[in-house]
Write a structure and sequence with these properties.
Blueprint lengths: L1 H13 L5 H20 L8 H21 L2 H5 L1 H13 L7 H25 L5 H21 L4 H6 L1 H10 L4 E4 L2 H4 L6 H4 L27 H5 L6 E4 L14 H19 L4 H13 L4 H31 L3 H9 L3 H18 L2 H9 L15 H31 L3 H4 L3 H19 L7
Antiparallel strand pairs: 1-2
Helix pairs in contact: 2-3, 2-7, 3-9, 3-17, 3-18, 5-7, 6-9, 6-13, 6-15, 13-15, 13-16, 13-17, 15-16, 15-21, 17-19, 19-21
């Protein structure tokens, strides 16, 4: 069965219709979304752009990363725009060194900034605000595509690319070269490009690639390879996280940041949020929402970072590696739980407001309808799905921490057991997530 799936997937990637058959319809829908955000209904609940972007697309995009890796990046409208800009006015300059060195940190900053901006200025809840965000991103893509080679924006600057890079490490698909065939290759068409397709847009060399983090499954390398070496295979989710050869602190830090952002998104939707905000205003002596939210935002973001650092300190006592190395190595174990917490949060938007996508689409054609509820599923059903996701994510993360310890330190009992502080950390983070989801919610917008 798996062999048949692999053959089908490979033939799809080799097809001249791929990925255009998905890319151009996606670009057309994106154009409608941007138009609606800028010129459509001013109410977020009746605007197709906000409903499609923040209720449907933003809710399911993490799931696509888990199932299909960075496939979205192959058909993303921003990537399509970048390719078009490069074709007509691109200078194709090399990527600046500072982007190669600090790209992940820039992505971390942008992800944090957009989340902060959403809560302080309500940009996401405002169609025009969402439209402005889209225009800013489009401007960045155009500038990047006009000056730099390949998909510099996607690789080094896109905040969604950073998120997809982390989650796609847990994906059910992987694209790899066959070592025996690649050793005999002298043309490197997979990277440089050929008659059938351009070179890898993400600056990856499939011959040596060991990670899904920067592979967007565009299929260019499959089309160009003269030796039929590149394979797309189904694998066990999260398996890649067990054997990371060169763990990076910035990538591990992004995993922790995602956990903090999920905390923020959930805390601000609780009944107790307004009360907590009032107490903080009294304590700080100000009623400026930007100040109070920034303080809570910083605290919520710091909690998982501090907890991982503490676990890394205990882990370093067992395996004798530095705290920095432990943070980098075991930070990847948070990714399955990150995904579970992220999706559990998104389920509220998708299933509690999902019908608004359909009704807002009808409103574009003059059909007005105001149903009593936009919910697709009951709140009880959504809660069951949430807790199931958190359980699976916690199990995946704990097992990942164990496999990281085993692959890094072998069978030495003391070193292999260095995963225990991280297992405790992951269970603690899971319980914290469960507690937050159990509290009454004020609203879901």
């Amino acid at each position: 069965m798996q062999t048949k799936i692999n053959i089908f997937l490979k033939e799809l990637l080799k097809s001249r219709w791929y990925p255009g058959i998905f890319r151009w319809p996606t670009a057309a829908v994106f154009a409608v979304i941007v138009y609606q955000l800028l010129f459509g209904d001013s109410s977020p609940h009746d605007n197709f752009g906000t409903a499609m972007t923040w209720i449907f697309w933003w809710s399911i995009i993490p799931l696509t990363f888990l199932v299909l890796g960075r496939f979205w990046c192959a058909i993303c409208p921003f990537a399509t725009l970048s390719d078009v800009i490069q074709k007509f006015v691109g200078n194709h300059r090399p990527v600046p060194r500072f982007l190669k060195k600090y790209g992940i940190w820039i992505i971390d900053f942008l992800y944090i900034l957009i989340t902060w901006n959403d809560h302080v200025f309500g940009m996401v809840e405002n169609p025009r605000g969402s439209g402005i965000i889209m225009l800013l991103l489009i401007t960045g893509v155009i500038i990047s595509g006009a000056f730099f080679e390949r998909r510099t924006w996607c690789r080094y600057l896109c905040f969604l690319g950073g998120l997809s890079g982390n989650y796609s490490r847990s994906a059910s698909l992987e694209l790899r070269g066959t070592p025996e065939k690649c050793q005999k290759c002298t043309v490197a068409a997979c990277y440089k490009g050929g008659e059938k397709a351009p070179g890898c847009p993400m600056f990856e060399f499939p011959r040596t690639m060991q990670s899904n983090a920067r592979c967007n499954f565009c299929g260019y390398c499959v089309k160009n390879c003269p030796n039929d070496s590149i394979k797309l295979s189904v694998r066990i989710p999260s398996k890649e996280l067990w054997f990371i050869r060169k763990p990076r602190f910035d990538e591990a830090f992004l995993a922790v940041i995602i956990m903090g952002i999920v905390f923020v998104q959930n805390i601000t939707m609780l009944d107790i949020w307004a009360q907590a905000q009032h107490h903080l205003e009294v304590f700080l002596g100000t009623n400026n929402y930007a100040i109070t939210f920034t303080v809570i935002f910083a605290v919520a973001m710091s909690i998982p970072v501090a907890l991982l650092y503490a676990a890394s300190w205990f882990g370093s006592r067992l395996n004798k590696d530095s705290v920095h190395m432990n943070f980098a190595r075991f930070g990847y174990a948070l990714i399955p739980l990150d995904f579970a917490g992220h999706m559990a949060h998104n389920l509220f938007h998708l299933f509690a407001e999902g019908k608004s996508v359909f009704y807002s689409a009808l409103s574009m054609f003059g059909f007005t309808s105001h149903p009593a509820s936009t919910a697709v599923l009951s709140s009880g059903t959504i809660e069951i799905m949430q807790f199931l996701l958190l359980f699976l994510g916690a199990a995946g993360s704990v097992y990942t921490a164990y496999r990281i310890a085993k692959s890094s330190y072998g069978q030495t009992v003391r070193k292999k057991n260095s995963y225990i502080p991280y297992a405790v950390l992951l269970i603690l983070l899971t319980l914290l997530n469960i507690y937050i989801f159990l509290l009454p919610m004020a609203h879901r917008t």
